[in-house]
Specification:
By secondary structure, the chain is an alpha/beta fold. It folds into two domains: about 1-100, no CATH class; about 105-290, Vaccinia Virus protein VP39 (Rossmann fold). About 25% of the residues lie in helices and about 30% in strands. It has seven helices and 13 strands. The strands form three sheets. It has a nine-stranded mixed β-sheet. It has a two-stranded antiparallel sheet with strand order 1-2. Helix 7 (about 200-205) links the parallel strand 8 and strand 9. The radius of gyration is 19 Å and the shape is globular. It starts with a helix and ends with a strand.
Length: about 290
């Protein structure tokens, strides 16, 4: 199993050697090869597309280990680890709302590359999930209390902590509402959100050091989320732009629909391409405008 996993990891890395993958980032390539993604994937996960019966098929490691492992290392495929906030048990094909997953290898690599953490930096991750992205961040930043990760679901946090410790990693895993950040360990050099929000929580901006970087998926009127990269001014405000189109599950506290005009988006029907937009966020909200 180990040799097979290593071979699949190497093949997955080769397939992500492109502009939206590693994009020449050698340290990230090394981290991907060093961290066993399969270690963080539950034995039972759902495939993210419905089958002919309208249900999401369950991949069970104990019954079909090769199919499960191949799914783990498909560059563009996320695997669903929770449906309806855990109300649906992973016992067979199911339907419902996805509420937690391990993002596809390609998406995780793109996130971490845009975050661009440096060794020794203090990083806050909002949305621990399985702990896989946490492991990549810890591999880069160092395992001396540099990485703090917060997860609203106590069960997910507990399992992620166990998986990380089993690999000899000890980032600080906190159970709590990620929208509030974790002020006890602030200020942070980087903050990464792995759940999308409709508006940037002010607590994240307050907890960034001057010049610190925030990377988060932001709900948009374009039919998908947009990954926004903001630089903090040290006074609770930040400015930046969008770097990629992505799809993420919504943070629990921001699932309710809100008019985009209330969220700072342009009122015109055609605001222009998102690549040309700038984002300013602060205590009074956010504003998105064409550059």
């Amino acid at each position: 199993m180990t040799l097979t996993a290593r071979a699949l990891r190497e093949r997955c890395a080769r397939e992500m050697d492109n502009a939206r993958g590693f994009a020449g980032c050698t340290w990230l390539h090394r981290a991907f090869l060093a961290v066993p993604r399969e270690h963080f994937v539950p034995d039972r996960v759902w495939w993210p597309a419905r089958g002919e019966d309208g249900l999401y098929n369950l991949y069970d490691r104990t019954q079909k280990p090769r199919a499960w492992l191949k799914a783990v290392y498909m560059p563009g495929v996320p695997l669903i680890t929770q449906i309806d906030d855990g109300a649906v048990p992973p016992t067979g094909p199911a339907t419902g709302a996805f509420t937690s997953s391990i993002s596809s290898p390609g998406v995780v690599i793109e996130l971490v590359r845009h975050l661009a953490p440096e060794p020794g930096e203090r990083i806050l991750e909002v949305g621990t999930g399985t702990g896989y992205t946490t492991a990549l961040l810890t591999h880069r930043a160092g395992d001396h209390g540099n990485v703090v990760t917060i997860e609203i679901d106590a069960g997910l946090a507990r399992r992620a902590r166990h998986r990380l410790h089993a690999l000899g990693m000890s980032p600080r895993v906190v159970t709590g509402d990620g929208e509030q950040g974790h002020p006890a360990c602030a200020p942070y050099d980087r903050i990464l959100a792995t759940a999308s929000v409709r508006s940037i929580p002010p607590a994240w901006l307050r907890q960034l050091r001057p010049g610190g970087i925030l990377l988060a998926p932001l709900d948009s009127p374009f039919g998908h989320d947009l990954l926004v990269r903001l630089e903090a001014d040290g006074h609770g405000c930040a400015r930046g732009h969008f770097v990629a189109a992505v799809e993420f599950m919504r943070a629990r506290g921001q699932r309710a629909q809100r008019p985009y005009a209330e969220l700072g988006w342009p009122a015109e029907a055609d605001p222009g391409p998102w690549e040309r937009m700038c984002v300013v966020a602060g205590p009074s909200g956010q504003r998105i405008r064409s550059r």
